[in-house]
């Protein structure tokens, strides 16, 4: 938010209050313009209850509130927005589906629209309208958003999880650029450890960072949890190779990585005790917010190294917007979704998220947020590089449960800590995954 | 009810409601009604629903179909489930024993006269009163693998050279969470036992001293037997709370590393709420019941050890 208003103040040459006022008038005008040309007219006396995940970046949350407010003023729809931590949001969204009552719109996480598709409204018309105006959806967005050929959610944004590293430490370890292949990456990690600047990746039950790097590890080696027919194939030579590579990597980790939950690597990196980890842009953003200019200048982001296939095999997080069938004001809800995804609003949304959230539509590749700070640039491409959490099988209950039960994360952790041999760990993971896919 | 019958037969002038008011049985029932409604509504019904859910394949997004004991058979073949049973038993047994020993010791100390007695007794209760999630976060920082104050202090003193991996090594993690639970639970045991100690008549101690009993003998023959009913009650509660502990584990380790600190309660939550399979999670939670029941029965019979406590004569 500070970035935006300072910039605004510099541009207009007026004070903070005036800048904010200018901002909200601009929003209101855009909202009016949208209300006039949108194909969905809100019902008379409509009111919407929206439930979203608790914002990670302050500016993003504030922008969301301001944009929603402008829509409410322009269309006369009464809107109430509630926030909930994402871990609590998912069960609540599921219960709302089960009970047939609750919020009209929920901004959820991952692929939960595949868990209760019958409770959600078909939003193919909104998705097509937006897609046409914004350069088309990325394939990953269609994968997450559609079920049986129809869109039952709008994949509003993809949150990137990439390599965060200390530039000076990487150079000291003998690398001018971040390695783009697996053997060099291992060499880098080993050199970092030797220099006393170890990297580290979460081996504990970290639902965000843990899953992201472990899935990359497996996929980069050609290993998968399931194949295209939803048959469990995690016990395979590719997995064994991935586990052995993982074991070598783990020997270079900062101490205690087996206990790391999602915030742990942020803490360690900001503290200077970890020089390479996987995370969203929040470490960099936190360094700036804390005024730690030195660390911020020394931090950069890179894509995950690629395996033998020379194709990206990364996992980034989807945040779908869903309308529930029990909503009494479906047109208002559709209008709201279309409004938020439309260019004037989505532009501001991306700007406020300062790289934490990326676009799921191709037109925003040219958005200034990616170039005004070149350290954000890798995050521009996360939607194009992402594979779904169910790779290579279909999205649904089984995939979500294997994901939530940390089957892959536990398998890698068991080998990394020496608790099991790669063969045993892969066999046990196969058994665990098969339980869920029997459903 | 006999009273109502008598009223109906002998006093034709008394109305129905007045007879109701005067019937002691009915009055007792009416007084029980609020508490009974609460218990039935908030305890019995959810328990029944939980058992029912454990027999279905309900998911959090859709109701399930009856599948009989499939979930239980499934769990019986799940190595993570048996690991959680082992963790829970270890956690409960070790933590309860240590809490009892230290709590009893603390109660004996607090039973004496010393300055600011009342203030210190209040302070001692703090770990138990502080919201569990907050103390769990504090312990999470204390056990942090990079920034633990314990590691820093010991390193400064030169006792160790590397940071201690509190929560990263499976066994370290188990002992660490047990230690956190003990810290939290001692005050409950201590204050309750202190209350029990206060009810022991000093004349018994005087009699024992006159008979030439040493401090240890006074404890063994006067204090401990008189405390037995209180111990039974407080340990039942302590075991129950420890067995079903959730917050400490969830905040500190989420059940990791590699499920080494997953208790049945945390695993049930991860499967049912985070993972979405309500049926399996409910079955996991229901499988805690036999253990809890046996703990209750054990202390119930412990309560009945001395006949004089029931009004009979000593044996």
Please explain how this structure is put together.
The complex is a heterodimer of chains A (439) and B (315). Chain A is an alpha+beta fold and 439 residues long. Chain A folds into 2 domains: 2-160 and 316-385, D-Maltodextrin-Binding Protein, domain 2 (3-Layer(aba) Sandwich), CATH 3.40.190; 162-314 and 405-437, Periplasmic binding protein-like II (D-Maltodextrin-Binding Protein, domain 2). In chain A, 49% of the residues lie in helices and 11% in strands. Chain A contains 20 helices and 11 strands. Chain A has helices at residues 2-12, 16-37, 58-75, 86-99, 124-133, 139-145, 167-172, 182-194, 209-220, 237-250, 262-270, 282-289, 293-298, 330-341, 343-353, 377-380, 382-385, 397-404, 407-416, 422-437; strands at residues 47-53, 78-84, 105-107, 146-147, 150-151, 154-159, 162-166, 276-279, 299-302, 317-323, 357-358. A 6-stranded mixed beta sheet of chain A has the order 2-1-3-10-6-11, sandwiched between helices. In chain A, strands 8-7-9 form a 3-stranded antiparallel beta sheet. In chain A, strands 4-5 form a two-stranded antiparallel ribbon. In chain A, strand 1 (47-53), helix 3 (58-75) and strand 2 form a beta-alpha-beta unit. The longest helix of chain A is centred in the first third of the chain and has 22 residues, at 16-37. Chain A starts with a helix and ends with a helix. The relative contact order of chain A is 0.17. With 315 residues, chain B is an all-alpha fold. Chain B has a single domain, classed as MetI-like fold (Orthogonal Bundle). Chain B has 16 helices and no strands. Chain B has helices spanning 2-10, 16-22, 24-54, 70-76, 79-110, 117-124, 126-129, 132-142, 149-156, 170-198, 202-210, 215-243, 247-252, 264-274, 278-286, 289-303. Chain B is flat, with a radius of gyration of 26 Å. Mean pLDDT of chain B is 87; it is low at 2-10. Classes of the chains: A alpha+beta (439), B mainly alpha (315).
């Amino acid at each position: 938010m500070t970035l935006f208003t300072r910039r605004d103040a510099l541009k207009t040459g007026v004070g903070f209050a005036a800048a904010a006022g200018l901002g909200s008038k601009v929003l209101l005008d855009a909202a009016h313009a949208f209300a006039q040309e949108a194909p969905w007219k809100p019902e008379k006396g409509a009111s919407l209850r929206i439930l979203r995940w608790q914002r990670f970046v302050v500016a993003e949350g504030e922008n969301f509130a301001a944009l929603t407010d402008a829509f409410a003023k322009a269309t006369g729809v009464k809107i109430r927005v509630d926030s909930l931590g994402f871990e609590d949001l998912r069960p609540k969204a599921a219960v709302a589906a089960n009970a047939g009552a609750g919020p009209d719109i929920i901004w959820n996480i991952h692929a939960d629209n595949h868990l209760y598709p019958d409770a959600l409204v078909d939003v193919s018309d909104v998705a097509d309208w937006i897609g046409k105006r914004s350069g088309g959806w990325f394939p990953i967005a269609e994968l997450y958003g559609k079920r049986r050929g129809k869109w039952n959610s709008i994949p509003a944004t993809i949150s990137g999880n990439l390599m965060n590293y200390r530039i000076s430490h990487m150079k000291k370890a003998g690398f001018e650029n971040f390695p783009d292949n697996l053997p060099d990456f291992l060499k880098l990690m080993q050199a970092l450890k030797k220099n006393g600047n170890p990297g580290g990746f979460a081996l504990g039950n970290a639902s965000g960072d843990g899953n992201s790097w472990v899935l990359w590890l497996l996929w980069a080696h050609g290993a998968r949890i399931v194949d295209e027919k939803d048959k469990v194939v995690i016990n395979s030579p590719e997995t064994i190779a991935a586990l052995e590579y993982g074991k070598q990597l783990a020997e270079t980790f900062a101490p205690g990585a087996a206990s790391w939950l999602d915030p742990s690597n942020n803490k360690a990196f900001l503290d200077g005790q970890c020089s390479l980890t996987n995370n969203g842009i929040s470490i960099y953003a936190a360094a700036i917010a804390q005024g730690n200019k030195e660390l911020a200048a020394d931090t950069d982001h890179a894509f995950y190294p690629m395996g033998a296939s020379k194709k990206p095999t990364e996992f980034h997080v989807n945040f779908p917007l869903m309308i529930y069938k029990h909503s009494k004001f479906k047109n208002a809800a559709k209008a709201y979704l279309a409004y938020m995804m439309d260019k004037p609003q989505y532009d501001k949304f991306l700007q406020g998220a300062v790289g934490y959230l990326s676009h799921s539509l191709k037109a925003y590749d040219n958005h200034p947020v990616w170039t005004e700070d070149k350290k954000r640039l890798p995050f521009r491409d996360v939607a194009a590089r992402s594979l779904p959490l169910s790779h290579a099988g279909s999205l649904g209950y089984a995939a979500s449960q294997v994901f939530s039960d940390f089957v892959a994360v536990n398998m890698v952790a068991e080998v990394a800590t020496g608790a099991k041999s790669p063969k045993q760990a892969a066999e046990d993971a196969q058994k665990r995954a098969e339980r869920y896919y029997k459903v | 009810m006999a009273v109502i019958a008598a009223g109906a037969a002998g006093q034709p002038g008394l109305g129905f409601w007045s007879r109701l008011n005067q019937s002691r049985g009915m009055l007792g029932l009416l007084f029980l009604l609020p508490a009974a409604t609460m218990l039935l509504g908030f305890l019995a019904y959810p328990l029944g629903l939980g058992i029912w859910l454990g027999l279905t394949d309900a998911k959090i997004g859709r109701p399930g179909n009856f599948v009989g004991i499939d979930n239980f058979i499934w769990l019986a073949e799940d190595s993570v489930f048996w690991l959680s049973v082992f963790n829970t038993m270890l956690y409960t047994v070790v933590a309860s024993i240590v809490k009892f020993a230290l709590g009893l010791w603390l109660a004996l100390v607090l039973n004496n006269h010393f300055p600011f007695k009342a203030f210190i007794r209040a302070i001692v209760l703090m770990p138990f009163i502080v919201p569990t999630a907050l103390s769990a976060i504090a312990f999470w920082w204390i056990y942090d693998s990079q920034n633990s104050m314990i590691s820093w202090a010991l390193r400064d003193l030169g006792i160790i050279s590397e940071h201690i991996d509190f929560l990263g090594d499976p066994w370290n993690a188990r002992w660490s969470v047990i230690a956190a639970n003990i810290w939290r639970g001692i005050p409950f045991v201590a204050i309750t036992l202190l209350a029990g100690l206060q009810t022991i008549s000093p004349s018994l101690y005087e009699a024992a001293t006159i008979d030439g009993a040493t401090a240890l003998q006074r404890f063994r023959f006067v204090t401990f037997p008189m405390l037995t009913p209180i111990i039974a009650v407080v340990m039942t509660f302590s075991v129950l709370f420890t067995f079903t502990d959730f917050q400490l584990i969830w905040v500190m380790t989420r059940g990791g590393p590699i499920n080494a600190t997953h208790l049945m309660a945390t695993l049930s939550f991860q499967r049912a709420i985070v993972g979405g399979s309500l049926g399996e999670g409910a079955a996991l939670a229901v499988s805690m019941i036999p253990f809890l029941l046996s703990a209750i029965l054990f202390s119930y019979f412990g309560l009945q050890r001395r006949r004089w406590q029931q009004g009979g004569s000593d044996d």
